[in-house]
Amino acid sequence: MKTIHFVALTAFLTISVTAYAENDAEALFKQHNCSMCHALASASVGPSLQSIAKKYTGNTSAQALLEAKVRNGGKGSFGAMPMPATPKSVSDENIKSLVRWVLATK
After folding, report:
1. Residue 1 above 70 pLDDT?
2. How far is residue 92 from each of residues 20, 95, 97, measured CA to CA in Å?
3. pTM to 2 decimal places
């Protein structure tokens, strides 16, 4: 019986942490003004989050590649519009969370 309780508790905590992480990343997305250029499903100034996730599906280097692009800026991946570098006030940990969330938006 104790095993069943342990499994249920583990599953609950896993789901809760995942939901919290998604909400946290979405809050970071809004807080750091990513939504000024990106939307979930439609392109605006920049590509949609879903098109970014789709483009990098199966790329084992995607997390690190996109973290560097978010931190340093970049151009040419989705057209001529360059992405500006992210201010140093945004932590590397927040960028990691944001990129993980973006890659999960498929």
Report:
1. no
2. 19, 5, 9
3. 0.76
